Amino acid sequence: MIKHSRKIKLESLFLLGIAVSCFPWISFGLNNMGMQPYFIVILLLSMMIYYHKYKVARFHHSIIFLPFVFILFQSLNGVPIDFLFIRDFLSYLAFSISFVFFYEYLLIYGFPKKFFYYILIIWLLACIPQYLFGEHVYSSLLFAKSSASRGFTSLASEPSFFGLHTAIICSMILLFCKKEETSKFLLLAILSLGLSGSLTAFVYYSLFISISLILTRRLNIKFFILILFSFLIAYFAILKNQRFGELINIIFDSGLIQLLVMDESSGSRIGDILTPYLLSFYNYFLPLGRVSYELDSLNFLCLSSNIFESLRSCGWIANDDKIGSYLGSIIFHFGFTIFPLICYFFFLIARDLRTVIASIIFLILIVTTIPPGYPMMAFYLAAYLFYVQKKYAIKKPTHNAKL
Question: How far apart are CA 30 and CA 392, in angstroms?
Answer without folding.
Answer: 46
